[in-house]
Amino acid sequence: GRERHPQSVAIREQLVNTLIDEAQMSPENYEKLLQNASQQLEEMAQQGVELPTSALLTLAELRERAGELPGAEEAYRSVNDRSESPAEKIKARSRLALLKARSSSTE
Predict the structure, then answer these.
(1) What is the DSSP string of 33-51?
(2) pTM of the model
(3) Short-list 3, 32, 4, CA closest to 19
(4) Is residue 50 within 8 Å of residue 63, measured between CB atoms?
(5) Residues whose CB is less than 8 angstroms from the CB of residue 71 and which lie 6 or more positions away in sequence, other chains included
(6) Is the distance from CB of 19 to CB of 11 less than 8 angstroms?
(7) pLDDT tens figures, 50-98
(8) In sequence order, what are the residues at sequence separation of 6 or more whose Cβ sits closer than 8 angstroms to the Cβ of residue 17?
(9) What are the pLDDT digits (tens) for 67-77?
């Protein structure tokens, strides 16, 4: 599907969720699968595709897991600014608060 519809956000989002699920079930390939999932979303963002807030939230979480905290913070802020979902906004705000608290404690 991805080859025939490279700009399809829904197909890429489904692929990302599948990769994350696989990572949970495959500890030996966990990092590789999460990197692949992150790469899928990063590629779309670099191509100028406006990611839905659900995909941005996933990207933020993947960046945070990878230790890419400035990128995670940027994505969480975007979710908070753009999302119409109260649950997404709450999650983004709580992750931002946690990132801020972590950075304050390391200074």
Answers:
(1) HHHHHHHHHHHHHHTT---
(2) 0.86
(3) 32
(4) no
(5) 60, 63
(6) no
(7) 899 999 999 999 999 999 999 999 999 999 999 999 999 999 999 999 9
(8) 58
(9) 999 999 999 99
